[in-house]
Amino acid sequence: xxxxxxxxxxxxxxxxxxxxxxxxxxxxxxxxxxxxxxxxxxxxxxxxxxxxxxxxxxxxxxxxxxxxxxxxxxxxxxxxxxxxxxxxxxxxxxxxxxxxxxxxxxxxxxxxxxxxxxxxxxxxxxxxxxxxxxxxxxxxxxxxxxxxxxxxxxxxxxxxxxxxxxxxxxxxxxxxxxxxxxxxxxxxxxxxxxxxxxxxxxxxxxxxxxxxxxxxxxxxxxxxxxxxxxxxxxxxxxxxxxxxxxxxxxxxxxxxxxxxxxxxxxxxxxxxxxxxxxxxxxxxxxxxxxxxxxxxxxxxxxxxxxxxxxxxxxxxxxxxxxxxxxxxxxxxxxxxxxxxxxxxxxxxxxxxxxxxxxxxxxxxxxxxxxxxxxxxxxxxxxxxxxxxxxxxxxxxxxxxxxxxxxxxxxxxxxxxxxxxxxxxxxxxxxxxxxxxxxxxxxxxxxxxxxxxxxxxxxxxxxxxxxxxxxxxxxxxxxxxxxxxxxxxxxxxxxxxx
Length: 497
Prior knowledge:
This protein is of the alpha+beta class. It has 3 domains: 2-76; 147-319, Methyl-accepting chemotaxis protein (Helix Hairpins, Orthogonal Bundle), CATH 1.10.287; 372-495, Beta-Lactamase (2-Layer Sandwich). Helices cover 75% and strands 8% of the residues. Strands 4-3-7-6-5 form a 5-stranded antiparallel sheet. A two-stranded antiparallel sheet has the order 1-2. It is rod-shaped and about 240 Å long. Mean pLDDT is 75; it is low at 1-8.
């Protein structure tokens, strides 16, 4: 019986208690009427009626002041347990019940804010996860391209290394040949100097021979004169001088022959001297040319030595480049693994965001989908705030996300500079500072570029584009209102229902 009584609601329970009290008073009054007489009986009956009235009044008072508030509290608790956070109490209570109402209202409001924040956070997480997924996919493709480029570069560098090594060997051999040539040129230069010295000596001796021939020629001339004188004297002597005349004639003939031979020798010697002079000049020129050749060979030897040194340094540098490319290849492979892991994490994060959103999906927060009029009103509110407090204050408040004053239902503000940079985003901080000018919708429409053009050219206006809903991923049409402020455009969009 007690268990059944505890399961009764507070209203019927109070009525039951009042009925029991009524029965007790009625029983007491009946006993008094039966056993009493006269005025005392009337007094007891009057008191009984008064007690009955007070009992009824107390029952009504308890029901209105206790039962009804408790029923309201129970009803609101039931609504909260079912996920409806839009309900409220029908009327105020008093005393301790008023405190219970305030606590329960605070719990409901806190839960409302938590659910709203969780939904906004799950949307932001899902959006960020999608962005990270797209970025990591793009990065993976670029990483593969880079890996292929590095492999090609490694093969080219390996071939270049072989070519440089071959060139280095040839440069070393050429350097050795140049050094040998330089040595031979120096030796040839020495020989030419010796030839020049010898030619100078021959030239000097030839001049001496010419002098000697001149002396011989003089002697022949004097001998001829003496022979003439002897012939004259022999003629004067007559018969006695005939033999002497013969001798004188022979001597004269011999002197003439000697003079003729001396002339021929002198002519030959003169020609030889001239040729020796010419040869000396040629040998001198050859010596000078050989000296220039030696200098040039020495200079070439210096160049070849520098080339050999540079070639060795180039070989070392190419070896270092090969090591660097190999290191880059290793890093690229590691990056590929990291990108793959990041992609898995992004997919997992998106799944967690979806799970988180589903976990609070049964909560009702009232009308959650903003309208085009509400989106326009939110932009107007932001423009008024920026006019009164400055654009920087508006940007700061919008970037507070749902902690700021420019998030209403599923609406939020976005602020873009004239070059497409995201200056503020009321739903996701990940987009702040990114270049969105080339962002496309489902149909390839550059809607960010179009929004900026509308704001900058016309001052304000609207457009439609197709985009995936951040929670359901359903492709839906989104209407956006745009208004210019300074060199920025303030935007707000709503999904079509």
